Structure formats: structure tokens, C-alpha cells
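Q: C-alpha cells for this one, please.
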Amino acid sequence: MKKIIGYCGLDCERCDAYIATVNDDQALREKTARLWAELNQAPILPEHINCDGCRMNGVKTVFCESLCAIRQCAVKKGVDTCGDCAEFKTCSVLKAITEHNPSALENLKG
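A: Here is the predicted structure, written as C-alpha cells:
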């Protein structure tokens, strides 16, 4: 399994917030903030677009740090990823991610 996989199986290395952070790319932060603000109808600013990865030490986006139900659950249960959880196959919250992102499911199985 890749090291920078989120609890849900998404590849953090493909996330624009992660890419902007590791490359200190202000233009990508601004572009991502505009897109995420529009998609979420929320006030997301470029300074909010910083993340070292869901399971890594360091900075996280506000969503990943405080609002992501999957991350909160995994941290509470003490699992490395959702793939290690006894409810992995039946979790409706995780299914919302994996049914639209088959690669996330493969990452969790891997």
C-alpha cells in the first residue's frame, strides 16, 4: 500500500491540496480554493489549501482535519485505514467514496 493513502483509500498524492503543499504552489492553491469553494458553496481560501496527507503528521485541510466522517471514525477506531476495519465491507459512509472511486477500494484491499 502506498504511504500517502487516506483512511478511505483515496490517493493523497493526487490531491491538489497535497500537491500544492509539497510543491509550495500558490497558483494551484488559488485555483483549488476557487474550485472547492464553488463545489461546496463555502468560503474556502487559498490559505486553507495545505495538507500533508490524511494519515500523515502535519497540516491538513479543514475538511480533512475536522469534517471528514471517515477520518474521524478511523482515528477513533485506531485503524491504519478503513481496509483494516471489521465494518469495511458494509460501511455506508465508506461506500460513498469507493463506489465512485474504484481505485480507492483497490488501495484499501492492497
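A few notes: The mean pLDDT is 92. The chain has six helices and no strands.
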